[in-house]
Amino acid sequence: MKSGLSFLVAARRSEISELQQLALNCALVDATGRLIHALQRERGLSNLYLGSGGTGFTTERPLQARETDRCATQLRALFDRLDTEASLAGHSARLFSRIAWVLQGLDALPRLRECVDTLAWTPARATRAYVRLIAGLLGTVFEAADSAGDPGLSRLLVALFNLMQGKEYAGRERASGVLLFASACERTSEQQRLLHFIDAQERCLRVFAEFAPNKVLPAWHEAQDPSTLAPLERLRRILCTATPGVPLDEQHSAEWFGTATQRMDALRRVEEQLGAELLAGCDARIRAAEAELAILEKQTTPPSDVGDLLAFFEDNASASADTPDQPYNPSLQRSTLELLREQSSRLQSMSDELSTVRSSLNERKLIERAKGLLMARRNMGEEEAHKTLRQMAMNQKRRLVDVADALLTSADLLPSPKA
Amino acid sequence: MKSGLSFLVAARRSEISELQQLALNCALVDATGRLIHALQRERGLSNLYLGSGGTGFTTERPLQARETDRCATQLRALFDRLDTEASLAGHSARLFSRIAWVLQGLDALPRLRECVDTLAWTPARATRAYVRLIAGLLGTVFEAADSAGDPGLSRLLVALFNLMQGKEYAGRERASGVLLFASACERTSEQQRLLHFIDAQERCLRVFAEFAPNKVLPAWHEAQDPSTLAPLERLRRILCTATPGVPLDEQHSAEWFGTATQRMDALRRVEEQLGAELLAGCDARIRAAEAELAILEKQTTPPSDVGDLLAFFEDNASASADTPDQPYNPSLQRSTLELLREQSSRLQSMSDELSTVRSSLNERKLIERAKGLLMARRNMGEEEAHKTLRQMAMNQKRRLVDVADALLTSADLLPSPKA
């Protein structure tokens, strides 16, 4: 029969295999970030192309499309490496199903480009299509972030997910600004959308900053540098305060696109560093766990004298966290009971920290879903739905996430959309 | 490159392998329930043996010990079947580490029995030792319940876990009553403990009843039958209202043990049915998922005409839940996009229901941990800690779980125990 010690070894092994799975997921997230960045550029250029009636950016756009395809090929190669045959850890059913969705969108990308080529679609419609594809890609990042069992790595993933989401809002802000300068839109409602994208972007970046590791802070502070932000804020003001019907200075359009792009590129640099940090963190964790496993495997079951065995029944057995004033020396032969106490207090504190980190992910999920509910059932736009939630939270003096939760709980009571 | 469809298939496969893992966990839970029941009897008989000064129950006790060993051997055989070499799903590191702990306790069981044999331990001390071992076993049940990804099966596991926990409180109530009749104890504080066990027991059984499937309700109503409960309540009243110092009628002791045992046996019958229900549920889910997988594997990627691909970018793509007025016919060839929408809405609703079910498990965990914190930091007994929490909740007009959560959050501010 297997001993207690062999199950301690098994516990370690299954931690390691989870970490290896996570490392693969992180590589996936990294490649996804690159593809999203390329798609965001392609979306921007498509907007400018459509806005110019098919005369501008005729060189840049196909070039960018090729770059996007290159990134997509890399990501697909990683998808293929996912061992879809073996039984995989935890949330993989959800991750696989998100990947299936993304692949469907990538297959449809050439058709989307044709619709832009032939000017068949308006800039707003093309933007929506790209937004949809990018949202699918962010969905896979969300699943990867949700599956991390290590609290430290989970923190990095939460930071990364929020950064990527914030950057996408920055991209949608850029597209919205382009529409406003082209003045082909319902100005007042587009201004509302712009404000929503700024607000949502800042919310995401706040969460990112809360979870970001020190190593990426220099790059982050650079992205937040006043010399970048001041021109952006000036153009934001011009866009937001423009009177309906009065055309905006066309000159500013290129300036807007350039400034907003600069900001997104700066965010992308933070993202790259964070991705590298994550991969390095995975490697370090795997190496540390393997070293500990090697020590554990050398450990023989110590001769169990009567006193030792009876120690199991002692009341202070769970007080392991309070005992260690002696220095940690893993090469010493220790009793299985000691090892068990260490292991269980380590797993407990990991699971504690993990639930703190996860709650931040879940809050985002709840808010997004409550917004989706309002959009579907009350025929609201995204920004209107967000405003409604925020207003409810303010009126009830409750947190946004609590209102979202309450709304989802009472979803069945909401009226269906008017036909 | 792999297609979207192949990832849909992979998602299904990984659901199936998770279900198979769960089925093995359920078998584990079943065998654990049997071992716990045997240990509870052995604990009761050991108490009576010690209470009689080593003269009573000298036949029954060794017989029961043999029965316990038989159950332990069965459980250990199942442990050995757990594939500790392969990488396993989700929470297995925690499950393995709980199993290692339990094995340590089972190894120490013969020593515990020696201490009873030789009358070296008081009944209270022997009870505490058995309580500790049973708590370890309940811990593995908790991990198994926490790892279920299917909301229906998760409900059954939550019901089962709470039933088992409630039954263990009934067992501790029985032991406490035996001590009170033997009058070898600090009567007032033992009465407090008795009241706590009744209270905690009822809380667990309320949660059980909330999650219990219809099939076990007849057995449950039988366990709650007035003809069983009335004598129990009468004896409870006698125990709780006994004046300190005045000896209780020894006659009642055997009656108490018999009545309390009858109640535990009735709860065990419910537990058996619930366990069978759970195994049947696992089997049914696996068969259904395999049938759906077979259909999915026959599905060829349909010829993608332009309109079909562009459908990815349509806004109502997430409204799948609102569309199906047409009857479900899995043998029809459907578009990958349709399959994707179905899959993602199914996974979404599963994850929604799952978080509702899990929150009930987490609440129990939070309350137990907050109690543990009070016991460690304020030198409180279990029942005093529970009373303190309940009092705080009442004073603040908040739920017990919210108070527990707040307490754990502010743990660092609590004073360390007086040295």
Which segments of chain A are poorly predicted (pLDDT under 50) over 5 or more consecutive residues? 317-332
Order of helices and strands of chain A: HHHHHHHHHHHHH
On the 0 to 100 scale, the average pLDDT of chain A is 83
- Specify which chain pair forms the largest interface: A-B, 73 and 73 residues
Number of separate domains of chain A: 2
What is the overall shape of chain A?
A: elongated
> From the helix content, strand content and strand pairing of chain A, which structural class follows?
mainly alpha
Multimer state: homodimer
Helix content of chain A: over 70%
The major beta sheet of chain A can be summarized as: none
Q: Termini of chain A, distance in Å?
A: 66 Å
Strand content of chain A: under 5%
Count of individual beta strands of chain A: 0
Radius of gyration of chain A: 26 Å
Please count the helical segments of chain A.
13
